[in-house]
């Protein structure tokens, strides 16, 4: 990774700035040359004799849990391979259907609200500093009434955040190291990786491609991508993503009712990731809280990322119902609130203004239009792979197409596609051993790129 | 806290919406009424018979580390007392010199950049999704050249974030539970609280008002607010904030050289919080990396919050030099990068556009003007307390005034000031037992409020 690429090269000390590549130095100062006389921000008085002692090590032990992690986090690894490919083929017209990043402009009704909020920060009346760590009251209320109306979820059950991935990390901090966890296999890798980081797991076991002490709930075409709960061991926490990333499978009402009952029987907490709920086409539940009793066993994370193209703007939310209690009767929401207040300071006020605009009638309409566009993309991709004779899953309820390459290695398929078509996908095995033999194709892309990608798939596989 | 205020009241089930206060329900739907027929976002099919079973508990154990935390996090607690005061005196003209929140509008050159970036997100060319988790290259480069020019800190040593508090939390996740830590006493409570949460400490010991297994480095007027390092036990991590929050004391070059040597001798890692460096008036170092050898033992966190009034916008950065190594030789930056990639997704792209504008010559000039204004406030507050015969510390290098009330209880002083003058301050003991007998008065405020506050202090103490 580029971060570390300089690690082994010898460092130039501050006294040797004459040896710094002048172009690099100049390009920096061009951008931000600071009249030093008026702003004494930076005093540059490092001792001339300072030399890097490359052999100095602190006596601080490396966190042994982080040391358990395998390779890089999946998506930076995909990005790294994409970058390497571009180095090899500088003129390649690379199409990214990999990391699931939104591509279409955000509707003006939403960005205008953010621009307005930005400008208002320059006025006495419009300026705001620290907001509530849990999010602005108006946004929490709008989330409650838009997505949880009549489900008994109230404004103060909702915590606004800078994204679902960040909230998953904070939830893991709440749970700590003395819990066990289960996860769909395959699923979004942040669940497993954050669990490893918090020390909830054992070492990675290369033979089975699993971490010890994690219950992997296998989701395959054979079981309709819903785990056979009769074979799943009891764990404290159950991560469950529906519609699932990467398989695109959405659990039905019956399945979720089973899952809630399973959690209740075991005294488990479900962390339900509904990041793709807005992409659903059938009538499966959009929220776990549609299932009776779920408020006593479930947390729900959600995000504006895939709803409104906010992957870069950063805004999400997590529902922690006040009815959800630890074994000693202490409310989970109270500890989550404490973590949010101690390790977080709320989402950007500008992003929150955008979120509020999303939930206005015209915002919802505009959002839905973009989502409709991506859903069309999904149909095109599904059609292309179907016509080539592949077994294709997902697509109906999620912007991900899960393509089966039976008996093949996911990374090999990923590499072959990248090498021969300049298309970036995501290897299924990056989502867990249950993803082996699949690749995930994201439907986020400009239409012409999606069409061109399908043409290239056709050339490759026809 | 309001979050929990409903906990013991019985919940209305979804079937009993007729019993919901109609005004509350209406006020929600007014704001975000959704034409359900066109947007099937929310299916409201919770079973009518669902009733809250208030006695159901999961079998998930509460995280025993979080259970160690005392009361609420300091600033929400101050906010809670402010709110209670307002309930008691609804017409009081409350002046907040408490939580250290910026109050002055953000210069237009900065907000315009954010507004422009917001609007650009509505265009094909200007849209951007996921950015690099570590921050945009241009911003990292600008931070390096503005604040660390000639200090040997490079663009890839800098991680852009949503704020220093959040980065402190992420650093603690990097360190994990098997490290020991030292902290200035008094200091910003997030260091201690995040350490408790991660399990680095023992229980809170009421007799000394300290957590077991934390090394509290006492900073008093007697030692010039710099700890006597000869009496400080070796720890893995040393949190050090300079200029200090709350005392306002900035460590001199000699003191920081001592500190770096102390860390080097012990193999410790310093987490240096420079959030207030821009407020310094004397020529003490702005960055720990001005001290020779610091790159091998120190991390630096910093923030746009107090530089540019970004407390609500959320933008900060952390420097983890590639020279900093764990005891096994593994680079700390590599693990921090992994946590940033796994539990975070980068700061908002709009906030980053604001940060970049801050570092343009006109942005720096505008920023410096606002900072100059707050520094004037500080002088006014220092003058007022001096004229009343108080011993006053801080103020010269930080926007905080540290007022001594020898022999008195900080919370008593806080309460008396609030009760008699309607001014919110922060009790010194909230920053550690070494803060007992002090209150912190923040200089963030409109000029008329600061002047009025000083008049009220005069009335109270004359």
Automatic annotation (TrEMBL), chains A, B:
KW Transferase (keyword) present: yes
CDD domains for this protein: AAT_like (cd00609)
Cofactor(s) for this UniProt protein: pyridoxal 5'-phosphate
UniProt keyword terms in alphabetical order: Aminotransferase, Pyridoxal phosphate, Transferase
Stretch list, region Disordered: 1-20
Matching InterPro entries: Aminotransferase_I/II_large (IPR004839), DapL/ALD1 (IPR019942), PyrdxlP-dep_Trfase (IPR015424), PyrdxlP-dep_Trfase_major (IPR015421), PyrdxlP-dep_Trfase_small (IPR015422)
Regions of compositional bias (Low complexity) in chain numbering: 1-17
One GO BP: systemic acquired resistance, salicylic acid mediated signaling pathway
Pfam families in the cross-refs: Aminotran_1_2
Residues in Aminotransferase class I/classII large domain copies: 93-457
Protein family according to the UniProt entry: Belongs to the class-I pyridoxal-phosphate-dependent aminotransferase family. LL-diaminopimelate aminotransferase subfamily.
Protein name as annotated: LL-diaminopimelate aminotransferase, chloroplastic isoform X2
Source species of the chain: Herrania umbratica
Gene: LOC110428695
């Amino acid at each position: 990774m580029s971060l570390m690429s300089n690690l082994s090269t010898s460092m130039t000390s501050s006294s040797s700035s004459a040896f710094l590549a002048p172009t690099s130095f100049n390009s920096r100062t061009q951008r931000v040359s600071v009249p030093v006389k008026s702003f004494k921000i930076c005093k540059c008085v490092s001792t001339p004799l300072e030399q890097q002692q490359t052999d100095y090590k602190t006596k601080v032990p490396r966190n042994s849990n982080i040391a358990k992690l395998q390779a890089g986090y999946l998506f930076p690894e995909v990005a790294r391979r994409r970058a390497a490919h571009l180095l090899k083929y500088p003129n390649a017209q690379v199409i990214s259907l990999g990391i699931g990043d939104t591509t279409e402009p955000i509707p003006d009704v939403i960005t205008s609200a953010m621009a307005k909020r930005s400008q208002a920060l320059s006025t006495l009346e419009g300026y705001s500093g620290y907001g509530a760590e849990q999010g602005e009251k108006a946004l929490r209320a709008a989330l409650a009434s838009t997505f949880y109306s009549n489900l008994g979820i109230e404004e103060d059950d909702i915590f606004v955040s800078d994204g679902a991935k960040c909230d998953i990390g904070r939830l893991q901090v709440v749970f700590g190291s003395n819990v066990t966890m289960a996860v769909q296999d395959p699923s979004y890798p942040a669940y497993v990786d954050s669990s490893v980081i918090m020390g909830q797991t054992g070492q990675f076991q290369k033979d089975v491609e699993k971490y010890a002490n994690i219950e992997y709930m296998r989701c395959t075409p054979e079981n309709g991508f819903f785990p056979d709960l009769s074979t799943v061991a009891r764990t404290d926490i159950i991560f469950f993503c529906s519609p699932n990333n990467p398989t695109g499978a959405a659990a039905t009402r019956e399945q979720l009712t089973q899952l809630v009952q399973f959690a209740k029987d075991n005294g488990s907490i479900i962390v339900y990731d509904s990041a793709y709920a807005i992409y659903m086409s059938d009538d499966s539940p959009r929220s776990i809280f549609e299932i009776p009793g779920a408020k006593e066993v479930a947390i729900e994370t959600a995000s504006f990322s895939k709803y409104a193209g906010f992957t870069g703007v950063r805004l999400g939310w997590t529902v922690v119902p006040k009815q959800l209690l630890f074994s000693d009767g202490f409310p989970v929401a109270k500890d989550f609130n404490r973590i949010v207040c101690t390790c977080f300071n709320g989402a950007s006020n500008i992003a929150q203004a955008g979120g509020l605009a999303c939930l206005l009638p015209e915002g919802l309409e505009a959002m839905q239009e973009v989502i409709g566009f991506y859903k069309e993309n999904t149909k095109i991709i599904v059609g292309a792979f179907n016509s080539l004779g592949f077994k294709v899953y997902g697509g109906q309820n999620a912007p991900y197409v899960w393509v089966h390459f039976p008996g093949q290695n996911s990374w090999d398929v990923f590499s072959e596609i990248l090498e021969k078509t300049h298309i970036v996908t995501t290897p299924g095995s990056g989502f867990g051993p249950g993803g082996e033999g699949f690749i995930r194709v994201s439907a986020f892309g400009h239409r012409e790129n999606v069409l061109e990608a399908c043409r290239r798939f056709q050339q490759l596989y026809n």
